[in-house]
Amino acid sequence: MGRKARGALLSASRWREPLASKGLAVRLEQEYQAITQALRRIEAGLADERGRREILERDLAELKQRLAALQTRIEDIEQRLGR
Predict the structure, then answer these.
(1) Disulfide-capable partner of 78 in 52, 55, 61, 83 (CB 3.0 to 4.6 Å)?
(2) Structure pTM?
(3) Alpha-carbon distances of 36 from 30, 42, 43, rounded to whole Å
(4) DSSP state of 1
């Protein structure tokens, strides 16, 4: 390979390096965006789950109160029937 051809190859590789770095930066930015979106979906899911859990806990407390009231009514009825 002649001196001129070698110089052209070195010159071309000098141009490819910044382009490769730019491509890497673009890829990294895309991956960052994808990870950020995934984290937002996870956080939203956790918030929804917390909300559903709070509702379930309230419903459970209400059911326990109703069960206690029913138990009291059953005991009252049993006393009236003489059991």
Answers:
(1) 83
(2) 0.52
(3) 10, 10, 10
(4) -
- What CA–CA distance (Å, rounded) separates 34 from 55? 32
Please state, in angstroms and rounded to a whole number, the distance separating the CA atoms of residues 75 and 11. 96
Biggest distance spanned by C-alpha atoms of the chain: 116
Round to whole Å and give the CA distance between 31 and 34: 5
Q: How far apart are CA 12 and CA 5, in angstroms?
A: 11
DSSP alpha helix (H) spans, the chain: 3-80
